[in-house]
Design brief:
alpha+beta, 2 domains, nine-stranded antiparallel beta sheet, two-stranded antiparallel sheet, 4 helices, 241 residues
Length: 241
């Protein structure tokens, strides 16, 4: 699986990305055994030497004493010591996350696919129910008065009022194609977070395990949404490589 770059959009020299992730929803074909999964991932991904179980267990007291209850999907959390990127592999699928510093698409997707292929070998999923490519962008030091310099369509405010904060969510669909995107624009009234632009592009139909076309199309959709939301001045300010 080697997804190629679409190349239809500029690569920003100063992107506002604070986190990128890709999530494959693919039910494991084999049953979860903590010791087996840990050993298998340590063999397949030896650099991910920190493997921790994510199975959450609650033991509420019943009439006959404590009762063991599993809360959340069973799986493992994978990370490389000294690095911020990590992966979560559960019986429901696999998610790879790269926080700052995000470098570029190729290094991100190659590492995500490497972990995904290890998951497929261990968990043996039959098909992928959904793929979600998510990018969280942060525009620092932005207040309500400056939002219009970043977003083409800033939120409106009635006359004689001052906009302090907002959260706006929308889902976008391309007619005739099995893809959609969810956009969240958020500006808190307090705190240093600034303007958050959270974009998730996802599939609407199941796909084959090693289908790389979806990854290319999701990236293109994410970029199309991202650049259509920003003003020309903001894009120009961030430069291109």
């Amino acid at each position: 699986m080697h997804p190629e770059s679409p190349g239809d959009f500029p690569r920003l020299s100063n992107p506002p990305i604070v986190e990128a992730s890709i999530d494959w929803r693919a039910r494991a074909g084999s049953s979860f055994d903590e010791s087996v999964w840990k050993a298998a991932f340590e063999t397949e991904l030896p650099d991910y030497s920190k493997v921790v179980s994510t199975q959450r267990v609650m033991a509420p007291r019943g009439p006959e004493g404590p009762m063991k209850m599993i809360v959340g999907p069973e799986g493992v959390h994978l990370s490389i010591p000294g690095q911020k990127s990590f992966a979560q592999a559960t019986v429901d699928g696999m998610r790879f996350t790269m926080p700052q510093p995000y470098t570029h698409w190729q290094s991100f997707i190659e590492e995500a696919v490497r972990v995904w292929e290890a998951f497929c070998k261990i968990a043996q999923p039959i098909e992928v129910q959904r793929i979600t490519l998510r990018y969280v962008n942060r525009f620092a030091d932005v207040d309500a008065a400056r939002v219009a310099t970043i977003l083409k369509d800033p939120p409106s405010c009635p006359a004689d009022f001052a906009l302090q904060d907002f959260t706006y969510q929308s889902t976008l669909r391309i007619p005739g194609e099995p893809y959609a995107a969810r956009v969240v624009k958020h500006l808190p009234s307090k705190g240093p977070s600034g303007l958050i632009l959270d974009i998730s592009a996802f599939t609407l139909e199941p796909s084959e395990i090693n289908d790389s076309d979806d990854l290319v199309r999701l990236r293109k959709l994410k970029n199309r949404v991202f650049f259509s939301l920003l003003t020309e001045s903001e894009i120009s300010k961030r430069g291109s490589l």
